[in-house]
Design brief:
This protein is of the alpha/beta class. Helix content is 38%, strand content 13%. The chain has two domains: 29 residues; 125 residues, Oxidized Rhodanese, domain 1. It is globular and about 35 Å long.
């Protein structure tokens, strides 16, 4: 009888230890790599567009575009045909107007189409981007287009991906954006956003 009691006590203590171990494991955070994977999956749409944290380090290259440095862009702008410059720096749109609290200084000759680099675009913003791309390229999808915003900005990355999906094939990504241009002491002008009609 005494052996049976000892045996039951051992079984009970083992089961409690196992339960305690499971409880500790359940309350511990996920492994760092798994946390990173989960967080990253929430940053993109199913189509691969960046959704959040637009102002953060970007990849070194873009699969759908040729990445250019400031020096390469200066040379590119001297070629024929001269590529069109598309600035996609976001800007608040409210009650039918762009709200610009301070000047946006960008590369001379740029076409500023704000907000088209959002991860998700409603039809009005998508049409706005499509229309301006069609106009500035004279309807040629092989026309060279340079897309940029500021440094470490996913808006330009998204905009290139979008333009590529629409069939534009001669795309350049100026990853350093207006920040890189200004740091090189090159001329800038105050930008004016292209008219948006929802």
């Amino acid at each position: 009888m005494r052996k049976m009691i000892v045996w039951l006590c051992l079984l009970y203590s083992c089961s409690q230890a196992s339960l305690a171990k499971e409880t500790v494991q359940a309350t511990q955070p996920l492994a760092p790599w798994l946390n990173s994977l989960e967080n990253n999956s929430e940053l993109y749409t199913l189509e691969g567009y960046r959704l959040f944290r637009y102002r953060s380090p970007t990849p070194q290259q873009h699969k759908q575009a040729t990445t250019v440095s400031t020096q390469q862009l200066v040379r590119l702008l001297k070629q024929t045909p001269e590529p069109v410059l598309v600035d996609v720096q976001p800007l608040v749109w409210m009650n039918g107007f762009f709200i610009q609290k301070k000047p946006r200084f960008h590369i001379p000759g740029s076409h500023w189409t704000p907000n088209v680099g959002q991860g998700e675009l409603d039809d009005a913003w998508a049409n706005y981007f499509r229309q301006h791309l069609r106009v500035i390229t004279q309807g040629r999808q092989d026309y060279p287009i340079v897309i940029y915003c500021t440094a470490d900005c996913w808006m330009s990355w998204n905009a290139i991906k979008r333009a590529s999906q629409w069939g534009y094939s001669n795309l350049y990504w100026y990853r350093d954006g207006s920040d890189g241009w200004q740091e090189a002491d090159l001329e800038t002008v105050a930008g004016k956003p292209e008219k948006f009609t929802p």
